[in-house]
């Protein structure tokens, strides 16, 4: 069936089988391979994308269910002035090694900071609790999210002055 | 790669439309909302519906409404929405306790309250919580609407009062009369963050003006309690002063009357111990919130 999905602000129309999962629509049909396809069982969170503004696990959403809706993937984080602060902070704080979990971590972290600009470590750990990283032991991921929060608060204060 | 088998897909525009599709296609049609139970089951061929009826865009099924005497939670309310509703946290804190320990934030963003109770997984947290709170379910079907109490909603593992041609509209949680001191709490023991419960319990207590227990609801999750509730423990407490001895006796009754099964999460004796200890703890939490101790 024909579906139309807005992905990172761009309207995309495809003819898909109802059983196609959103993660495969993004990766195989739209060639947005930044979203990773991990455990397939809604455990690991590597496939996290925003659906209408909230992160969800795209291995457990049918592409047809996204018809008429808005998707934001890791490719949509970068703005006209370069990388998003959360991406910069992951680079600066060594928030990744192999990078497999990173797109999902970034999408969830961005959502957290939009909701909670000054999160506690506990709130950060809770926010990423549906995501698995096998490299970093999470310490640097938490540090990166904290770093991004501080940088954004600084920037906001400078802007307000 | 895990993919569901082939199926047809239709989006329902209204409750009426969803019911018409269910009647037309019979038991081979299934409703889908959050899909976080059904899609994994379809990938494993534990479910093979011929038609999926997507109810995500049925406006009547959304929304939380709080009136003087009840909380109305639409079947399509996402876990995150329930957790974000501060008024629910004040009126029925047990629901927030339970939501905080359901899966993880991403799953909670998609999964629905109605889907959770209709899945009727024996380890599902909201089943015990809503049963403890004596909620009722409004169900729509070809013959109109009917209301079923949560204690009577669960017919067994993965089986509920909702028939194949019916649809859950909302859950309604009764609120105690104003002026009565009331509190509720939920606790869960699991092996790791976001996991299913090894065992969990919830309690809702309403105190009479003289400090005795006017009404109490005790829910048990994953512990093999009939209809997710510990009625024997409730009966022991009702009308009594909630002394440590009375709470202890309620815990013993809850442990004695549930029938947990041994699995990879623990042996029977351990789960029975959890039933007793968690019952005591949630009763103490609920009483503290009611200002009764």
UniProtKB/TrEMBL annotation, chain A:
Pathway: Alkaloid degradation; nicotine degradation
PANTHER family in UniProt: OXIDOREDUCTASE WITH IRON-SULFUR SUBUNIT
Domain 2Fe-2S ferredoxin-type: 1-77
Domain of life: Bacteria
Keyword Iron on entry: yes
Protein name: Carbon-monoxide dehydrogenase small subunit
Organism: Pseudonocardia thermophila
Molecular-function annotations in GO: 2 iron, 2 sulfur cluster binding; metal ion binding; oxidoreductase activity
Signal peptide limits: none
Alphabetized UniProt keyword annotations: 2Fe-2S, Iron, Iron-sulfur, Metal-binding, Oxidoreductase
Cited InterPro entries: 2Fe-2S-bd, 2Fe-2S-bd_dom_sf, 2Fe-2S_ferredoxin-like_sf, 2Fe-2S_ferredoxin-type, Beta-grasp_dom_sf, Diverse_Oxidoreductases
UniProtKB/TrEMBL annotation, chain B:
Alphabetical keyword list: FAD, Flavoprotein, Oxidoreductase
Membrane-crossing residue ranges in chain numbering: none
Protein name: Carbon-monoxide dehydrogenase medium subunit
Keyword Nuclease in record: no
Flavoprotein among keywords: yes
Domain of life: Bacteria
All copies of domain FAD-binding PCMH-type, residue ranges: 2-178
Organism of this sequence: Pseudonocardia thermophila
Annotated SMART domains: CO_deh_flav_C (SM01092)
GO molecular function, one term: FAD binding
SUPFAM superfamilies, A to Z: CO dehydrogenase flavoprotein C-terminal domain-like, FAD-binding/transporter-associated domain-like
């Amino acid at each position: 069936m024909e579906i139309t999905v807005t992905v990172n602000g761009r309207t995309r129309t495809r003819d898909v089988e109802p059983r196609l999962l959103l993660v495969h629509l993004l990766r195989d049909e739209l060639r947005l391979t930044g979203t990773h396809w991990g455990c397939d069982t809604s455990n690991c969170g590597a496939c996290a994308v925003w659906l209408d503004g909230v992160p969800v696990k795209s291995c457990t959403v049918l592409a047809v269910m996204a018809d008429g809706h808005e998707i934001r993937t890791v490719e949509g984080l970068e703005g006209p002035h370069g990388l998003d602060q959360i991406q910069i902070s992951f680079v600066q704080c060594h928030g990744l090694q192999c990078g497999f979990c990173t797109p999902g971590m970034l999408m969830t972290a961005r959502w957290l900071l939009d909701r909670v600009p000054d999160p506690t470590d506990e709130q950060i750990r809770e926010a990423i609790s549906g995501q698995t990283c096998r490299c970093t032991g999470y310490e640097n991921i938490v540090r990166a999210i904290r770093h991004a929060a501080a940088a954004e608060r600084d920037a906001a204060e400078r802007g307000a002055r | 790669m895990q993919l569901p088998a082939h199926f047809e897909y239709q989006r329902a525009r209204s409750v009426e439309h969803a019911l018409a599709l269910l009647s037309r296609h019979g038991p081979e049609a299934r409703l889908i909302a959050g899909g976080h139970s059904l899609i994994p089951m379809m990938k494993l061929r534990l479910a093979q519906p011929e038609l999926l009826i997507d109810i995500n865009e049925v406006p009547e099924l959304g929304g939380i409404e709080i009136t003087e005497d009840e909380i109305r939670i639409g079947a399509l309310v996402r876990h995150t929405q329930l957790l974000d509703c501060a008024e629910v946290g004040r009126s029925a804190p047990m629901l927030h306790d339970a939501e905080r320990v359901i899966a993880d934030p991403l799953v909670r963003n998609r999964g629905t309250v109605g889907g959770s109770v209709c899945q009727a997984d024996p380890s599902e947290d909201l089943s015990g919580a809503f049963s403890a709170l004596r909620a009722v379910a409004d169900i729509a079907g070809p013959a109109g609407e009917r209301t079923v109490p949560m204690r009577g909603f669960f017919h067994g593992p993965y089986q509920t009062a909702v028939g194949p041609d019916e649809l859950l509209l909302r859950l309604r949680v009764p609120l105690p009369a104003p002026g009565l001191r009331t509190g509720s709490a939920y606790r869960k023991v699991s092996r790791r963050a976001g996991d299913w419960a090894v065992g969990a319990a919830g309690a809702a207590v309403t105190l009479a003006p003289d400090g005795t227990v006017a009404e109490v609801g005790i829910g048990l999750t994953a512990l093999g309690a009939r209809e997710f509730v510990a009625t024997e423990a409730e009966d022991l407490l009702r009308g009594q002063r909630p002394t440590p001895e009375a709470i202890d006796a309620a815990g013993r009754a809850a442990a004695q009357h549930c029938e947990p099964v041994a699995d990879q999460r623990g042996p029977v004796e351990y789960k029975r111990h959890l039933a007793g200890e968690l019952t005591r703890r949630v009763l103490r939490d609920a009483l503290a919130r009611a200002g009764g101790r």
